[in-house]
Structure formats: structure tokens, C-alpha cells
Design a protein that fits this description.
Blueprint (H helix, E strand, L loop, with lengths): L3 E6 L6 H9 L4 E2 L4 E3 L3 E4 L15 H9 L8 E5 L5 H9 L3 E8 L2 H10 L7 H20 L3 E6 L4 H11 L7
Parallel strand pairs: 1-5, 1-6, 4-5, 6-7
Antiparallel strand pairs: 2-3, 3-4
Helix pairs in contact: 1-6
């Protein structure tokens, strides 16, 4: 049974989905329901290259059903990618006695703009970027308020280095 969940948060373009794909490893499989399963983590959403959590509908019932499936998964950590997930999700998981963590990815605005441009996303203005960063920080704070922990991670580095650090922070093996 999965007894830990890590919310991967940060503004769009910081590298959340790329991090999750790295955490899942080279050959993830489709698990129960909407979960993608790697060797020691599972992630809610279609990975790799299926859009990850961004491809999930905004429907509380979808998330509730997915959380009910956690006992069927043997992964060490459930990964929730992005601010699509909220304090409500953190509360639901905390009530189910799932230990929570927030991994807050941070990078310079120029790095984020370059990454977003590389994937064809439209440019962002400074106000929008600040709102997205604040949203990620609020979710991180909500996780801490529910007894979880929050760790900031420098996402300026190559994806495999970020993944290695996050794996260590989550108590996972150093490679998937």
C-alpha cells in the first residue's frame, strides 16, 4: 500500500512533469485506474509523454476515485504533479493517513521562459509568473499545515540531477 504522497509544485515550465517522468524511470506501466507506475513511485496521470497530470480532467470525483485506489498500489510514494491538485487533495490524503510532502521546484524566470519557449508555450508576463509561484507556495504551506513537510529544490540543474536529489529527499533508491 502506498502510504506517502509527494506533491511536485512550481510554476509552469519549471520542470515538474519532466521530474515525474524521471522519477518513474525508463519503463513505467499503466497501473490501476489513472495511475502510472514505476519501480518505486506511482504518478497520477498518463506518463511518459501523455501530458501527465495536465491531461487529467478538473473533476474532484476523478481524484477521489484515484485516492481510493492507493491501497491497491505497492509503490513507495504517490506523485501528484502540479497545482491542479489543491489543499483539498492534501486534506483527503491526510485524513487517509497518507504522509505528505511538497517538493517546490524553483528556477529563474529566464530559465522558465526558455523551457516554455522550447515546448511552444506562449510567453508569460511577470505578474502571471508571480501568481503561479504564489499558488505553488500556498499548496506547499497547506501540506505543512496538515503535518507534511516541504522542501525547496533548485530546478536550474539538469533534470537527472534534480531527480536524483528528489529521490534522496523522498527516501527512494538513487535510480529508478
Amino acid at each position: 500500500m502506498t502510504s506517502r504522497a509527494a506533491f511536485i509544485v512550481g510554476c509552469p515550465g519549471v520542470g515538474k512533469t519532466t521530474l515525474v517522468e524521471n522519477l518513474l524511470g525508463p519503463h513505467p506501466t499503466q497501473g490501476v485506474g489513472r495511475w502510472t507506475v514505476g519501480r518505486d513511485v506511482c504518478a497520477l496521470g498518463p506518463y511518459p509523454h501523455g501530458g501527465g497530470a495536465d491531461a487529467l480532467p478538473f473533476a474532484r470525483a476523478v481524484f477521489g476515485k484515484a485516492y481510493a485506489q492507493l491501497p491497491l498500489l505497492a509503490s513507495a510514494v504517490a506523485i501528484l504533479d502540479g497545482t491542479r491538485f489543491s489543499a483539498v487533495d492534501a486534506q483527503m490524503l491526510a485524513e487517509a493517513r497518507v504522509r505528505l510532502a511538497a517538493v517546490v521546484l524553483r528556477a529563474a524566470p529566464a530559465t522558465i521562459a526558455r523551457r516554455r519557449g522550447g515546448r511552444g508555450s506562449k510567453p508569460m508576463d511577470a505578474v502571471w509568473l508571480a501568481q503561479q509561484v504564489a499558488r505553488a507556495e500556498r499548496l506547499s504551506d497547506a501540506i505543512v499545515q496538515r503535518g507534511g513537510r516541504s522542501v525547496g529544490v533548485d530546478a536550474e540543474r539538469p533534470a537527472h540531477e534534480v531527480a536524483r536529489e528528489v529521490r534522496l529527499l523522498l527516501g527512494l533508491r538513487s535510480s529508478p
